[in-house]
Amino acid sequence: MLRVVDLSSEGLHVAVHRGFLTVRRDREEVGRIALDDIGGVIAHAHGLTWSNTVFTRLSERAVPVVLCAQNHAPVACVWPVAGNHLQGARLNAQANAPRPLAKRIWRDIVVAKIRMQGSVLASVGAEPGAFAMLARKVRSGDPDNVEAQAARRYWQALMGPDFRRDRAAEGANSLLNYGYTVLRATLSRAICAAGLHPSIGLHHANRGNAFALADDLMEPYRPLVDRAVYNLVQDGCLDVSSQAKSALAALTALDLLAPRGMSPLHVHAARLAQQLAGRSCGAEDDFDLPVPPEPLTMAGLARRGDAT
Q1: At 269, phi and psi to the nearest 5?
Q2: Running DSSP on this structure, what letter comes out for residue 289?
Q3: Which domains does the chain have, with CATH numbers?
């Protein structure tokens, strides 16, 4: 699989030299990668400088360059316009994907999310049995809205009978908001780097949502944020402090198991987006949705000594 280059450090200069993308800091080279091995470039650091050759050489190889804002969410993408048969094919295939395919993929996503929710509940000592049953009930496209049925049981079982998920509320809700924002940015970057358009969703279809596909693909990962927030709350952290932000952002490096092996969440997300691109183009690629971590791993989320 082609590699995604993530530029997240401050004060870097990016250039091209003899077929390689080079990265320098204070005139000292800190990294390089062959242009032909790059599947996408993501830039979300301050003070980056580029040579124009970077964009032309990457565009010649149909490599998208994703530009992100301070919150790490994509705000623009440099799309190649010449010699880009793969990019065009992916966008056309995504826009014209058969509804039955989208509905089957959405079913798999919902099943993975419900199973992850059940594992989260089991890890805190709650009864997870109903979630295995609910996961088996999900049909193509989830016409019975089993996802919502699971959510109604899930939040009170995890956070207590008085808890209500409210995006405008403080405390645990504000921590959840921040964790989801980190997750959404991670999936958005992966989607853009895979050559897909983030506004063309599988299930979410709000015209005002520029990253509907990210909202689709992040669903199985959401319960990991929930468990991390549960841990923060248990440790007495109810504010979105700098320490809490760091702890929640660290989830992107969480090692997750998938059929192809263990990898950090952000790498797992990049692979998932690449696999979705392949499926949209008719490939029979696997769709490596995340497998729930062990209970001991979940118990340690957001508990790194400085998260409270």
Answers
A1: -65, -40
A2: P
A3: 3-83 (3.100.10.20), 93-299 (1.20.120.920)
Average predicted confidence (pLDDT) for the chain: 88
Collapsing DSSP to helix, strand or coil, 71 comes out as: coil
Q: d(Cα 259, Cα 87) in Å, to the nearest integer?
A: 27
What percent of the chain has a predicted confidence (pLDDT) above 90?
53
Which residue, 108, 42, 75, 87, is CA-closest to 259? 108
Token output for 285 = 């690629």
Closest CA to 62 of 2, 115, 10, 147: 2
- Write down the residue that tokens 């939040």 correspond to: 155
Cα(301)–Cα(307) distance, rounded to whole angstroms? 10
**3-state DSSP of 19-58:** CEEEEEECCEEEEEEEHHHEEEEEECCCCCEECHHHHHHH
pLDDT of residue 191: 87
pTM: 0.80
Q: Burial letters for 161-197: b for 16+ Cβ neighbours within 10 Å, e otherwise?
A: eebeeeeeeeebbbbbbbbbbbbbbbbbbbbbbbbbb
Predicted confidence (pLDDT) per residue in 140-180, tens digit: 999 999 999 999 999 999 999 999 998 888 899 999 999 99
Report the pLDDT value the prediction gives residue 3, as an integer from 0 to 100. 78
**CA pair distance 197, 189, nearest whole angstrom:** 11
